[in-house]
From TrEMBL:
Gene3D superfamilies: Anticodon-binding domain, Bira Bifunctional Protein, Domain 2. Belongs to the class-II aminoacyl-tRNA synthetase family. Its main location: cytoplasm. Its EC number is 6.1.1.21. Pfam families: HGTP_anticodon, tRNA-synt_His. Keywords: Aminoacyl-tRNA synthetase, ATP-binding, Cytoplasm, Ligase, Nucleotide-binding, Protein biosynthesis. Homodimer. PANTHER family: HISTIDINE--TRNA LIGASE (PTHR11476:SF7), HISTIDYL-TRNA SYNTHETASE (PTHR11476). This is Histidine--tRNA ligase. It catalyses: tRNA(His) + L-histidine + ATP = L-histidyl-tRNA(His) + AMP + diphosphate + H(+). It is found in: Cytoplasm. Residues 1-385 form the Aminoacyl-transfer RNA synthetases class-II family profile domain.
Amino acid sequence: MTGLVRPQNLRGFRDLLPEEMLLRNEVVARITRVYQSYGFVPLDTPVLESLPTLLGSGGEEADKQIFVVRENTKPVVAEGEAAPVEVGMRFDLTVPFARIIAQYAPQQIKLPFRRYHVGPVFRADDPQPEQGRFRQFTQLDADIAGSSTVAADAEIVAVMSAAFDSLGLEGSTGYFVRVNNRKLVDAFLAGVGIEDFETARHVLRVLDKADKISPEALRAELGEGRFDVSGDRIRGVGLAGDLIDALLVFVGIGKDTRSETLDALEALLPATDQAQSAVAEVREFLSHLDALGVSEASVQLDPSLARGLAYYTGTVYEATLVGAGVGSVGGGGRYDGLVSRFSDDPVAAVGVSIGIDRLVTGLANLGVEFGTARTTADVVVLVMPKVEPAEATRVAAELRAAGVNTELYVGESVGKVGKQLAYANAQGFRAAVMIGGNEVQDGTVTVKNLQAGAESRAAIADNSEYRAARSAGQMTVPRADLTATVREILGDTLEEKA
RNA sequence: GCCGGGAUAGCUCAGUGGUAGAGCACCUGAUUGUGGAUCAGGAGGCGGGGGUUCGAUACCCCCUCCCGGUACCA
């Protein structure tokens, strides 16, 4: 071991091996296509930002989670020398987007502007990979800047819902999106005399847990507080009992449809201007959702939804995969004040972020598959005994020229057909091409359908019988028919898959 | 961050104050040009550091990582 560096990941960081990457690429490709169908254009920004850009944007909690990077390796700055620029790693894609808008609009970027962005973000919090909590994870965001209309909010919710639809998930049984508007809860709290911002935020945070903890625990946290399983004390909000009752009725009022829920909420709200304007805003938002054809099963109005990030100012959204055990897989909302951190010209904005890592692990937990292979090539060309190795190389080149994804076997088991077929089997190729001494002599090539061969020999238990059936699923054809034969096999196996 | 529990082979786990095993996986071979099963053989490990002890994988402390809760969020 002396001198060896232990191969190990940093806590909360992970490697993505090919099998997972192929699934992940497919998920990203599908969602990206959905984003593009709504007119979002791609954009990328650096992973590093200055600390002033990052700090204070997402609230105290977000500040604590920023990885700070030292720009030069000099540990001490000499007297009179300029201090190095303070740099950190982005914790989301929303803050960089706000910076982009402030920096490029309205010259290089015309408003309203809708963009999507795929990239890694970094949070120095306590990771729990099993639950989909990582220190580096990839977000797939879609945002609209320069629109304060609820039509934009509805577009975001619709594109979010369509993204999950594109993965073959069903609304309500596969996933659901909850939507809310902070102004509703604020109006309710103001009506019962809670004007203090800190208290209101604390109430929101607790209410947000309504679907995660028991009703008793929820009640305790709104009141005197409680102790969790490990004996840790959880501070309560300290509200009076009757007020807690009223709050729980308010956030638990969910009806069958979004508009019925809103009607019920309206009846509980005070007759203030604040409440009326909040209800009117949500009602218009809901009418746009209806116009977009967003189903009641996929998207529900849930007054308990709050979300933690400080920059949200109005509508908020959160997506959950049913039974996946990974928490929320997407979230978003309106953040009209964020661009103002970077510019005197305020720009309204709204957007959504989908967490790819959680989504992919959640899909895996649910057993959802897209038929992605373990290899990017469909065919492997084996290097047979008693033949010039370049012959296999020529065959591979010929297949590639014909547009077939092809791997040439370059391992150590050259000439050992059994070993090479075992490799082909393990990698999941659909077909193997064999050109050995016999084929060269006859001017032929042997093409093996690996799936068909496996199926036809599945039931054989006897060794000699198994060996006798060795050429199952394969055919030897004139060399000129190589690509046609391969295409036929690939077409067959594709049909079987569909 | 905080509270609690863990760490033995690639994986799932057993085990003891006298330096370790199983199943699966992996590698080699069984009429040299055929995937699987079977059979035979093989390789591979007590997370890191310190302490107690004649002796530590085991007991104690620290670190790292993992699991659960909390907080927060994707």
